[in-house]
Write a structure and sequence with these properties.
By secondary structure, the protein is of the alpha+beta class. Helices cover about 30% and strands about 30% of the residues. Strand 4 and strand 5 form a beta hairpin. The protein binds 2-acetamido-2-deoxy-beta-D-glucopyranose (NAG) (2 copies).
Length: about 425
Amino acid sequence: MGPCTPLLILFLLSWSGPLQGQQHHLVEYMERRLAALESSDDQWHCSQRTQAGGQEVGERLAQCQDQSSRHAAELRDFKNKMLPLLEVAEKEREALRTEADTISGRVDRLEREVDYLETQNPALPCVEVEEKVSGGPGTKGKGRRNEKYDMVTDCGYTISQVRSMKILKRFGGPAGLWTKDPMGPTEKIYVLDGTQNDTAFVFPRLRDFTLAMAARKASRVRVPFPWVGTGQLVYGGFLYYARRPPGGPGGGSELENTLQLIKFHLANRTVVDSSVFPAEGLIPPYGLTADTYIDLAADEEGLWAVYATREDDRHLCLAKLDPQTLDTEQQWDTPCPRENAEAAFVICGTLYVVYNTRPASRARIQCSFDASGTLTPEKAALPYFPRRYGAHASLRYNPRERQLYAWDDGYQIVYKLDMRKKEEEV
Ligand SMILES: *[C@@H]1O[C@H](CO)[C@@H](O)[C@H](O)[C@H]1NC(C)=O
Ligand SMILES: *[C@@H]1O[C@H](CO)[C@@H](O)[C@H](O)[C@H]1NC(C)=O
């Protein structure tokens, strides 16, 4: 989009209004003329019939017939001239409507470009909150279901609002994922573009990612099996991701509709572990994000997975995973609907589900589920995300920075979050 575009849009906007108005007046004016003509024609007939008498009748009748046939001819003529005009007007109106749609699309686009440009200052003032991050190997019973979760850290906060939005970059396609390793200490930025690919970009630090032609400076890490969806996670130097196991689906094997979790060591570039996710009949958890079957999340407590199964195809499930072994430690059926969900993340053991519409409008957290049972639904804030935007293909929470890395229709955005204690009154 060139620098003249705003001017062009203003020009078109200022024109399309009055022009449409004028056209409307013209049509109304023509219709009035037509109506007047028709009614005067009728009156003529009428007055002739009642007035007539005596010898003059014949003559006047002839005159009348003459006049009225002349009027009829004129009317036909006028109508014939008007029809193509009206057709043209209708076509122009249609064209203007299409133009207006295009313009509003372009204004949207422009708004994003401006937002993006506005945020193009190099320093990202992050508040680095030093938080002890621990997600040690689970000692709890495997696969426990719907039992209260015992926190392993003392973190006890919840979101109060989305404080700010910063658009950092426009990179890649509509769906993807970008993140730092929440376990640190690396400042590396990992970018996984697309819902089915095997090559991740790695940038030494955020600044390198925001530069123009950033991809040239990125190193690439290729994983042995392509990932599926946008549910991958970088955590503690590993890339965790889901792949379709060999043989399924459609292979008729018992692995049909299951996914294999892969744990890939990013520095050594080796698969160190894998496991079949123990949920049958997996379906995409988010109604608006169809390619993702398992969404992995990291918080202060460790590693989580959001998924859904055919067993209850209307709500989301949450699982706590052991990052060492990929074992499922606990599972919960949440009250959060799948319908219109687009993404989710976990903070201090609480799942936050973000909802949107199709076509996308303003995203909002509309459901939360605290596995530890501390945050009751009534006390949970349901914040909106700033402005009207596109669809979030992924949201990755970073506990150290208390911010979200979002992939929004090809834009990479950082949302800073305001927190409060879970127990506080709203
Ligand atoms: C992966 O993404 C790159 C662009 O980022 C693209 O060129 C490549 O074809 C993709 N590979 C697959 C297997 O889709
Ligand atoms: C990475 O490679 C080094 C050297 O080969 C090895 O000592 C280390 O255990 C590997 N780490 C992982 C997680 O595989």
